[in-house]
Specification:
- The structure is a single chain.
- The chain has 540 residues and is an alpha/beta fold.
- The chain contains 16 helices and 21 strands.
- It has helices at residues 13-24, 41-44, 65-70, 80-93, 183-195, 219-238, 257-270, 273-277, 287-304, 308-313, 332-335, 382-385, 397-400, 434-454, 464-478, 509-521; strands at residues 4-9, 29-32, 100-101, 106-112, 117-122, 127-135, 157-160, 175-179, 198-203, 209-210, 327-328, 341-345, 351-355, 358-361, 365-367, 370-373, 388-390, 419-421, 457-462, 527-531, 536-539.
- A hairpin with a 4-residue loop joins strand 5 and strand 6 (127-135).
- The longest helix has 21 residues, at 434-454.
- The structure holds ligand NA7.
- Ligand NA7 binds next to helix 5.
Length: 540
């Protein structure tokens, strides 16, 4: 007899909503969270400058209109502490705490084929039996620290941004080395540069970044936002990115140079990456179209950074804008005009080792007191494969995904009955407003579980055929765009040895939602339901 209907792994945005949704459906549920607080990404990534790059109006739950009216965001782009306060408010408001167990890491999930239940093992030595597992493990939670020989000999302290000390750090008077110039590196660099005696930024790949134009939200804006939520959310659900973005509806290649400049300038001045990339229909499809916006951003970099050689090094050339996450910062490029900041090009002269006093590249030594790794994550699949998940016939998830992650609709894996992934590989996930995508996935999972239970089924599982068709579709759509043209974490390129598979679904949030709705309306097409006696219904 199971202890619980549902075990939820993780208590970030996804786990918190999963607890609320399962409970509202009358299911018994418990979430296990490794951290000493809830929040997931927003708990762990408490480094200086951590801020969401989706506007607060969008980056918030929409499942309860009363919640939207109660909570008031203070800034256009919320900083990490405010997002964390919001999530704690949600847990308080819906009294979720009794069903969330903190300081408990799930180490293994093992399917018992005869009892048709999951045994979930945790690092406190306990085990629980659950009928269903919901993996709310986060797309960007398994940290990646590059294997730098000699790091263990380094005398100073080193940090990964996603495990920042909760008591903070003091870099005053120190020489700090920062490795990594993705979204995180670009956010933390100006904060370190404001305190440290010297900041060395070790850059392997230059990144495109656009201004946030972050600011406080006025009282009048708050009133308008709250009044506009119903329409805004409806538009977001139908949109490509989970955020309503108004484009011109035209091809960049059909525009005059003057019209392009006007559009890009207006959007640059307004701030944010999505409005800029969404301005023309072909920016993520045609390299020639993409070059128009890439040239525009490179021009802004040259305008900002006084030293032309430095501006050149900071200007990305190797990949199209948006093929890697488009970074956002109001201060990053201007920071390089500060006399205490040095850019180190580790593309031409790679980091070879650390030594007690600092970092060695192929051509020079850099003496530093502290090292900061903003080197990213084993994204999307990493948090799942780090847990020993053993499905039907003793097959591990790690083994099943040896050639790359495969999931039907990004939500279920063939051979792993009664296990569901929230925003897993093959769903819009990281290429969308995560909160909206999380809500849609959790609701799909809740409805699928209640459907299976009301049909008297003991298990529900994605079929291999539906999975293969979906994975092929995810690939077809991705390879019709410019997304795969970069060595990015979207394809697993940042983790040595990780198979190259394009993981997010680029077909858009609205079309993806319609597909899921159609699957449900067709009696959960592509899933098999099995009754206790072993009778199987195949919906395909
Ligand atoms: P990212 O985007 O994966 O960025 C990691 C950065 O670290 C990137 O600049 C990498 O360079 C660099 N990196 C990784 N390994 C090395 C080594 N060995 N040497 C030098 N540089 C290295 O992670 P973030 O945390 O910034 O952002 C992840 C997401 O979180 C972001 O997209 C938002 O969605 C929020 P590379 O580009 O691989 O050459």
């Amino acid at each position: 007899m199971a202890d619980l209907d549902v075990v939820v792994v993780g208590a970030g945005f996804a786990g918190i909503y999963a607890v609320q949704a399962m409970r509202s459906a009358g299911l018994t549920v418990r979430a296990f969270e490794a951290g000493s607080g809830i929040g997931g990404t927003w708990f762990w990534n408490c480094y200086p400058g951590a801020r969401c790059d989706v506007e607060s109006t969008d980056y918030s739950y929409s499942f309860d209109p009363a919640l939207e009216q109660e909570w008031t965001w203070s800034e256009r782009y919320p900083a990490q502490p405010e997002v964390l306060r919001y999530l704690n408010y949600v847990a308080d408001r819906y009294q979720l705490w009794p069903d969330i167990q903190l300081n408990t890491r799930v180490t293994a999930c093992v399917w018992d084929a005869s009892r048709r239940e999951w045994t979930v093992l945790t690092d406190d030595g306990e085990s629980r039996i659950a009928r269903f597992c919901v993996m709310a493990t986060g797309c960007l939670s398994a940290q990646h620290v590059p294997a730098i020989p000699g790091l263990e000999t380094f005398r100073g302290e080193w940090f990964h941004t996603s495990r920042w000390p909760r008591e903070g750090t003091d870099f005053a008077g120190q020489r700090v080395g920062l490795i990594g110039t993705g979204s995180t590196g670009i956010q933390i660099a100006p904060e370190i540069a404001a305190d440290a005696e010297r900041l060395y930024v070790f850059q392997r790949t230059a990144n495109f970044a656009v201004p946030n134009r972050n600011r406080r939200i006025t009282a009048d804006e708050v009133t308008a936002i709250k009044a506009g939520y119903p329409v805004h959310r409806a538009m977001a659900r139908e949109s490509m990115l989970g955020v309503p973005v108004t484009g011109t509806g035209r091809s960049a290649l059909s525009e005059s140079p003057e019209a392009l400049r006007k559009t890009y300038t207006e959007r640059w001045e307004a701030g944010g990456g999505m409005p800029l990339l969404g301005s023309y229909t072909d920016l993520l499809i045609s390299r020639e179209a993409n070059d128009t916006v890439a040239d525009f951003i490179r021009e802004r970099i040259r305008e900002t950074v006084r030293d032309p050689g430095l501006a050149r090094l900071l200007s990305p050339r190797a990949y199209p804008v948006g093929a890697k996450r488009l970074c956002q910062s109001d201060d990053y490029f201007a920071m390089f005009n500060q006399p205490n900041v040095t850019l180190v090009d580790v593309r031409s002269s790679p980091v070879v080792s650390a030594y007690p006093g600092g970092v060695r590249t192929a051509t020079a030594d850099y003496e530093v007191d502290a090292l900061v790794f903003a080197t990213g994550f084993d994204a999307v699949s990493g948090a799942l494969t780090r847990i020993a998940v053993i499905g039907a016939n003793g097959v591990s998830l790690r083994g099943a995904w040896a050639a790359g992650p495969r999931a039907y609709l990004g939500v279920a894996v063939a051979g792993f009955p009664n296990m569901f992934l929230v925003t897993g590989p093959g769903s819009p996930s990281v290429l969308s407003n995560m909160v909206l995508s999380i809500e849609q996935h959790v609701e799909f999972i809740r409805d699928l579980i209640t459907h299976a239970l009301s049909a008297g089924a003991s298990s529900v599982e994605a079929t291999g055929r539906a999975t293969a068709d979906w994975v092929a579709h995810v690939n077809d759509v991705a390879y019709a765009t410019l997304f795969p043209c970069a060595e990015s974490w979207y394809v697993g390129a940042n983790i040595p040895g990780k198979p190259r598979v394009f993981t997010p679904y680029v077909g858009g949030v609205g079309p993806y939602r319609s597909r899921c709705d159609a699957v449900a309306a067709a009696g959960y097409e592509g899933f098999t339901l099995t009754t206790v006696g072993g009778l199987r219904w195949l919906f395909r």
